[in-house]
Amino acid sequence: MNHAFPCGTLPLDFVGTLRTRRNESPTEKLATPELLDAWFVESGVLDLAPGASGVDLTLAIDLRESIYSLVTARMDGRPLPAEAVAEVNLQASGMPVTLRLGPDGATRTGSVSQGLAALARETVEIIGGDDGDLLRECARPECTQTYLDRSRGHRREWCAMRTCGNRAKAAGYRARRHSSQD
C-alpha cells in the first residue's frame, strides 16, 4: 500500500496525503497520477484505477487544499474561505461513482472527477454538519493529520494510536526515564 488511512474519514485521509505540512519540505503522497489512482483504489472509493492524468492530479490537489482550508477554518472558528467553499461545492455537484451489482458483488467504478465528487460531498456533510465540531488535529508536532474525535469524552489526541499515539507515548517515556537518571 502506498497510502495510509488513519482517520476513518476519507476526505480527512485525503487531506493527509500531504504529510508534515508544517515542515519546510512536506511529503507529497500524490506526486504522480499513478499515486492518485492508487489512493482511490486503496481507499475503496473506486475498485478500479480511474486512469488519472496530470490535469486530474492538479484538480485533486486543488480539492485537497480546499478541504484543508475548510477544515482548519472550522477548527479555528473562522469564517469558511469563499474560494474553498466554491471549489468544494463545484466538485460536489459532479456525477456520483457508479455502483453496480454483479455476480461477485458490488463494484464501484468511475472517473477521477466522480471520485473527487464523492470526497467533496462527504466534506460538505462534515463541515456543514455537527461532525464539524469534532474536527481535531493530531497533537504529535510532526504530524498535521486531521480527524474526527468520536471518543467518549472527546479527548482523543492523536490521529491514530498505532502510529502517532505510540510514538508520542514512547517519546514521553524516554524523556521521563532520561530525567529520572539525571
- Unreliable sequence segments: none
Shape: globular
- Placed side by side, the strands forming the largest sheet appear as 1-2
Instruction: Count helical runs.
Output: 6
- Straight-line distance between termini: 43 Å
Radius of gyration: 18 Å
Mean of pLDDT: 89
- Write down the secondary-structure element order: HEEHHHEEHEEH
**Oligomeric assembly:** single chain
Main beta sheet: 2 strands, antiparallel
Helix content: 40-55%
User: How many beta-strand segments?
Assistant: 6
Report the β-strand fraction as a percent range: 5-15%
Task: Please state the structural category.
Answer: mainly alpha
Write up this protein:
- With 182 residues, the protein is mostly helical.
- It is 49% helix and 11% strand.
- The protein is built from six helices and six strands; from the N terminus they run H-E-E-H-H-H-E-E-H-E-E-H.
- The chain has a two-stranded antiparallel ribbon.
- Helix 3 packs parallel to helix 5.
- The chain starts with 9 loop residues before the first helix and ends with a helix.
- The model has no long low-confidence stretch (mean pLDDT 89).
Short summary:
This protein has 182 residues and is mainly alpha-helical. It is 49% helix and 11% strand.
